[in-house]
Each structure stands twice: as structure tokens, then as C-alpha cells.
Amino acid sequence: MPEIGEVARIVNYLHKHLVGKTLAVVKAQHDENVYGKVGTSAAEFEKALTGKKVVDARQQGKYFWLVMSSPPHPLFHFGMAGWWKIRDLETAYYKPTKKEEPTWPPKYWKFTLETSDDSKTEHAFVDIRRLARVRLIDCAAEEMRNVSPLKENGPDPVVDKDILTEDWLVQKLQSKHVPVKALLLDQANISGIGNWVGDELLYNAKIHPEQYSNTLSPAQIKQLHTSIHYVCSTAVELLAESDRFPEEWLFKHRWGKGKKDASQRLPNGAKIKFLTVGGRTSAVVPSVQKKTGEVAADVKGEDSGDDDAEKEDDEGEQKPKPKKRKAHEDGEEEKDREAIANKRVNKKPAVKTIGKAIGKTKAVKAEDVYMAQPDQVNGTVSTAEDRATEAQQTKDGKEIPKPKVVRKQKTSKSASKPSIEEASNRRRRSARFNTGTK
Questions:
Q1: Mind listing the pLDDT tens digit for each residue in 145-164?
Q2: Is 211 helix (H, G, I), strand (E, B) or coil?
Q3: Longest dimension (CA), the chain
Q4: How do strand 133-137 and strand 273-277 relate by DSSP bridges?
């Protein structure tokens, strides 16, 4: 991501090749991420800038903007991979590994500008990853830093040296309990410090990036304040041209991570290690950047700077080796899963309370009793066994008559009473039997 030095490089080019010129042609192609997410559109951008004169170009940290002859003023942020190109002029701060064919407009352009004077220049804003942002700020030019999003960002170490004093830094560091590297990366605290600048100034100050900000000593804070201004001012003055950076800078030696046969040591032999702080991969030299207070996480073995560090992962932390599974353990785990599955399938049936269907109320298993509801067609009652047999028959494709249990018919009390004549005959037969007569 372009940081304070890289943005200063583009502002320098804008002063040389755009400020003081009138924009005759403005073309923009809409990108919902680049324009839309910040409430702007390509059409609005074209309309706002066409025919306007560029009065100035300014910067605050990673933001930069053009001061136009009248509002609104365009505000830009490069995101992770955005950049500003000028036709027939190389603006890159690094040497491309592969030379690109000169085409215009360039690939991934979001807008192009063309001036109207005799010394016509053409400019293009490009972004392959679509994380850049283009805004239109409708306010007076001198009020730009007092409106969002600039007002939510901290002071610029180069532009605002009168604000970012040692006393200001003491108060900021002691008011928070976060790793010092994370505090420096937060643009709400200080504008313009990105990953490599943060690592460079902490290396220069000899402070471990994971140490909590409120545990730094007065001497460490004083040195950190000096390092912030030294590294940021140098990067801006040299327009982020790394070939011109001091040879003792960490920047010159930190890029070997993950590359074959690349050294991860300084020329004096000191080990460069990598760990994650504030969500970013940080380069640290343990033999120089000692832990002098509470830290967010220990990086074992780094203080010694010896070969034990080779056992660590590429982020600089030692992690326990994952336990290897044995074949019989895998088999046992498979058996356990089968046992759990069988247990679910063979789960004991729910207990139901059956009332009048079995003569009296008691708790029994549902399949051990007749269901309370008889078959409405033939008056039969089916059991769990019958239902299971029926299900199996249906599954096998056979059509076997459903077994029926006929309910025993009860006779009424009135029907069982003998008539008067029948009772009289019964008494006569009983009397004859007792007397022996026929």
C-alpha cells in the first residue's frame, strides 16, 4: 500500500505537471467500489472537474487532493494498489520487474484528465484491486481538513510537526493499552504510517512492535518521537525512492521473506524475524528490539537471535507441532461414530399414557398395547407388531392382507336377563330333578 512517502511522490508530480493548468477533458468510468462506496459517481466526477483550473495539490498522510478553482474538490486514497500515471512519464517508485507496453489509457483506469494549454499533459488514476476511493468534497479549500474523512485522521508527521510533539505522543501512548505497532498503524492516531514505515521507525527506535504502548519508558518515547519524524521526513524528501534510502535502514534487507535463497539477516549477521502485529506481518530484529515491558504475545527464542529461531514458523512464533493420528485411533473414532449413530436409531421409544384403551390408566410402552383408536372401517385394533409387518410387506412390494383382531362384542345387561316364562320352566326342571320325577 502506498504510504506517506509514496503519496508525497505523486503530490510532487502533480505540482510539476498539473497545478496551474485547466482540465479540458475529463473521462471517468464508473466503479461502484471506487466511487459508489463513498457517495460519488463517475458522471458527477466528470461534471465537477471539466473546465476547472487546478490551483494546488495537498496531502494528509495517505490522502491527497486537488484544490480546484471552485468547489467541489476531488479527494483521493490509493487503497492497496492504486496509483497515478502521467503519459510519457514514469511515476512509479519502484522498478517494474516486467516492462509494460505503453498503452493509453492504461489498464484498470478509473478516470483520465487532459489539460488544455500548449504543454498538454494527460493523467490517469488506475487501480487493479478496486480498493482506491475517489470523493468529491463540497467545501471551501481551506476547510478540507475539517470535514470527513480527513478530520477523523490524526496529524501528519511531516505537515503537522507542530502538533505531533513529544508531549502529544506521551499522552497518546499512555492513553491506550495496545501493541505500539498497532497504535502507529491506526490512521486515527497518526496519518501516513503504514506497514514498512512502522517497522522502520520502531527498528530505528529499538522498540519491540508487540510491546504495549503504555509500558514504554520516557526515554523510549523520546526516541520514538525522534524516529517518527526522521523516518517519515526522509521517506518524503526522497520521494519514496528506495534506492536512495540509507543503507542501514531495515527496508533495504527486509524483503527476503518467503524467497528462495534470500537472506533474512542484516549485513552484521543480526536475524530478521517476522510476526503478525495489528493484523500485519511485521519485520523485527530481536537482538536490537528488546522487550522491556508487557507485550501482546511472546515470540520465543527471538531475544537470543540464535539458530533456535529456525524452529519457528514464518511469522516468528513457535507453535506446537500438530499431533499425528495413528491408524488404530482413526479406526476407534470410526467405531465411536457408528455407536453414536446406532444409539440414535435404537433410541428407546417414548412412554405414553394409555387410558381406557387398556382398561385402566398406566404408563406403558406404546408398542406393547393396542392403540386407542380402532380401525374405523372394520372395527379392528392394530398393534406395533402388525404395523411393523405391514411396513415390511410394503417395502418388499408384497400385498398381504392386514391381520385383524376382532373386538369381542359385549352383551348388554338387559339382553342377558331371562324372561318370566323361561324362569318358570327352569324352576319346574329343578323341582323334578330334586323329587326324581320326569
A1: 999 999 999 999 999 999 99
A2: strand
A3: 157
A4: unpaired
